[in-house]
Amino acid sequence: MTITCPNCRTRQMRELHFHGQRVDRCTLCGGIWFDHGELNGALSRADNGNDDVGVEHNLGNHLGASPRQCCRCDDGLQYYQLLQDFRVEVEVCHSCTGIWINDSEREKVVQSPRVQSALEQMNQPTSTKTWLFQFLLKMPVEYNVKARTTPWVTYLLLALNILIFFGYNSDIQLAEQVFDAFALRSDYLLQGHHFGTLLSHMFLHGGLMHLLGNMYFLYVVGDNIEDALGSLRFLMLYLLCGFAAAAAQILSDPGSTTAMVGASGAIAGLFGMYLLWFRNASLTFMFFIYQKKLSPMVFFAIWLALNLVGAWQGQGSVAYWAHIGGFAAGLGLGWWLKPSVMRTNPVLAMLNSDSIKVRR
Ligand SMILES: [Zn+2]
Ligand SMILES: [Zn+2]
């Protein structure tokens, strides 16, 4: 039996296979009618067979009456928000519990279970567990959408850095030889040799805490950025930020004879992209003993301020200018690539929307 489109009032509805469900779609306006149970079924399939999808039974706020009528029972449809924390409008019939979805809302509806679970993750409060973790290890806890793809390049970079470190670190003489050959020195580069160290210095670390700190941050932000970019582009941008970091450090002190090592500059580049693409994520910060979820914007502003102070004081063994240069490169690349990253990642785009208010 052909039914009438609630929107166009014509009998132009055709059967469509939509994520495993046979639904009715209007050939004129593209809207889709879901009979009772069909939307849950389709969304479960769209979300990799997640059986917990129950949006039909857990609709968000009632937003008032719609001008359209149900195509099964001629009752007036009612506007609802599909989710509690995110604005996706659907129209529901109170009599037969069928659901009408406009063409413009369809992609948002399909992605909504993933957005929902991301929001649950992002809205989690801090706990004794997260407090202890940060108190003991001095590292932030991340609240963000889970990466959908396995971040192979992130794992590869972690493995390389760790294996290389333990490869030379057991033997002081060997460590010295490795640093002589592969650490970055501004004076050598300006004399026109040791160009390979522009790459190799990123895979060496001066001490265990230096290594662990860098690897933890790479692990936290790397998976999401690799997921957003794809592995190959992720690797290229990671290295590019590392080169920019080295360039900044060389410019800050040309002719320096100090050897520079570490992945920090490349990872600082990831920070720049992270704060632009995951602005509703949170990282915890510990003010003495008080733990607070901060937006990446605020978190990395504090991190940048500490580096600027360090660079200004110019003391110690930390390559502050490399951090600042890598971060600036990441911000620039992140800003430039943001439109295409959002286009190819609808869930990310939805999580970036202004209507989302994350609890921190
Ligand atoms: Zn229509
Ligand atoms: Zn109805």
Characteristics of this structure?
360 residues, alpha+beta, Rhomboid-like fold, 2 domains, 7-stranded antiparallel β-sheet, 3-stranded antiparallel β-sheet, elongated, binds zinc ion, transmembrane helix
Provide a descriptive summary of the structure in words.
It is a multi-pass membrane protein. This protein has a seven-stranded antiparallel sheet. A three-stranded antiparallel sheet has the order 8-11-12. With 360 residues, the chain is α+β, with helices and mostly antiparallel strands. It starts with 12 loop residues before the first strand and ends in a 9-residue tail after the last helix. The mean pLDDT is 91. It is built from 13 helices and twelve strands. The site of one zinc ion has 7 residues, from loops.
Summarize the structure.
One of its GO terms (cellular component) is membrane. With 360 residues, the chain is an alpha+beta fold. It is 50% helix and 15% strand.
